[in-house]
Design goal:
The complex is a heterodimer of chains A (225) and B (219). Chain A has 6 helices and 11 strands. Chain A is of the alpha/beta class and 225 residues long. Chain A has one domain: Glutaconate Coenzyme A-transferase, CATH 3.40.1080.10. The two termini of chain B are 29 Å apart. Classes of the chains: A alpha/beta (225), B alpha/beta (219).
């Protein structure tokens, strides 16, 4: 019997190592797997590369991970947040930044999940984002080459999950979560609800369990207002 | 001496209202953070324009009353919003496929500078900006079928924003089709900026004096 549901964070975090690349779901304060990030901090791993849209919001999650000095490099589109932790670390030279247009970031993650090594896009042509990158013309339009962005682990927040790891997401809590789930060697999910196998309408499953390795039940409720 | 006071033109809400006039029913539209967001308030709900937000919200409706906010429903500006009947959610890569695949009829962004060849600079004010934040601006500028810019005609200190060549880091090349400022509406054409309409009391001389680029008229 397949059962991807784990009972504690030690099981959820098994195998995480220094230097890993972490795909971190969430947009704004919605869909953030903050409990998994807290558990990641507990493991003591460091020198992480974190791929996340924002540079941490609030005081938990990525903000705390950075505050603990565990993040060597941040790959993100919008390194701003409602606190100054990232900016302080960045100015002090304690964290590297790779800034990526948001759609290019999402597509690089999707490419990684789909076995695509690189692709060409018009986004960023003629800007700083294209510096040092190959530019080619397709159908009369200049496009810049971007590489896939895979992770060693993906941390995801879901609304519902079953023991096969089938997932749903709530409203705009979907954001990067199901895409990142496809692109990591190990995908770890925290979910608000655990349901029986077969309880999810197959037509409404947003991320099939094929992409998911571990699920832990964290019914924390609503994101902060 | 020129003692005649110059018309200020439209205020910010009037600019948003003016931009909204030209958005027809049936268009799929992404409005950038800041002034562009106000445009939605001037599109009546019975004119069915479908608003998209980068974080995977399609069919975004008006801001909810304080006591009816859903903590799970935000837009790309992290503000609480609503979803209209017929609205849907997608994940981030699909949301940006809508943008990058040319499926949006219109995107309206703010900008620091727009050049008369349609180049736009709107994400960083210096080559050495400590930690510039680009978000989805480059995807939207390069991907939408039409890009309009809504911005003040000059900076607070009088700096010119309709320019011959952008001085700030570029967001996209040749992307802007129309600019709505407090002084008027200007299309980007093969000849450069072309006046579509001037705000009440604003003169062509005034616009030209406040622009670095040449401002053309149809005649």
């Amino acid at each position: 019997m397949i059962n991807k549901i784990v009972q504690n964070m030690a099981e959820a975090m098994a195998g995480v190592k220094d230097g890993m690349t972490v795909l971190l779901g969430g947009f704004g304060l919605v869909g953030q797997p903050n409990n998994l990030v807290d558990a990641l901090i507990e493991t003591g791993v460091k020198d992480l590369t974190v791929v996340a849209n924002n540079a941490g919001g609030g005081t938990t999650g990525l903000t705390a991970l950075m505050e603990h000095g565990r993040v060597r490099k941040l790959v993100c589109s919008f390194p701003r947040s409602n606190n100054t932790i990232f900016e302080e670390l960045y100015r002090a030279g304690k964290i590297e930044l790779e800034i990526v247009p948001q759609g290019t970031m999402a597509e690089r993650i999707r490419a990684a999940g789909a076995g695509v090594g690189a692709f060409f896009t018009p986004t960023g042509v003629g800007t700083k984002m294209a510096e040092g990158k190959e530019v080619r013309e397709f159908n009369g339009r200049k496009m810049v080459m971007e590489y896939a962005l895979p992770g060693d682990i993906a941390l995801v927040e879901a609304w519902e999950a079953d023991r096969w790891g089938n997932l749903t997401f709530k409203l705009s809590g979907r954001n990067f979560n199901p895409v990142m789930a496809t692109a990591a060697k190990t995908t770890i999910v925290q979910t608000q609800h655990i349901v029986e196998l077969g309880a999810l309408d197959p037509q409404h499953i947003m991320c099939p369990g094929l992409y998911v390795d571990r699920v832990i039940h964290i019914p924390y409720g609503d994101p902060p207002f | 001496m020129d003692a005649k006071p110059q018309a200020k033109g439209w205020d910010r809400l009037q600019m948003a209202e003016r931009a909204a006039q030209d958005i027809p029913e049936g268009w799929y539209v992404n409005l950038g953070i800041g002034m562009p967001t106000a445009i939605a308030d001037y599109v009546p709900l019975d004119r069915e324009v479908i608003f998209h937000s980068e974080n995977g919200v399609l069919g975004m409706g008006p801001k909810p009353p304080e006591d009816q906010r859903d903590p799970w429903l935000i837009n790309a500006g992290k503000q609480h919003v609503t979803l209209r009947k017929g609205g849907s959610f997608v994940h981030h890569a699909d949301s940006f496929a809508m943008i990058r695949g040319g499926h949006l009829d219109l995107c309206v962004l703010g900008a620091f500078e727009v050049a008369d060849n349609g180049d736009i600079a709107n994400w960083a004010t210096s080559e050495n900006d400590a930690a510039p934040a680009v978000g989805g601006a480059m995807d939207l500028a390069a991907g939408a079928k039409r890009l309009w810019v809504i911005m003040d005609h000059t900076t607070k200190s009088g700096g010119k924003k309709l320019v011959r060549k952008c001085t700030y880091p570029l967001t996209a090349l040749g992307a802007v089709k129309r600019v709505i400022t407090n002084l008027g509406v200007f299309d980007v054409t093969d000849r450069g900026f072309m006046v579509v309409e001037l705000a009440p009391g604003v003169t062509l001389e005034q616009v030209r004096a406040q622009s670095d680029a040449e401002i053309h008229t149809q005649s």
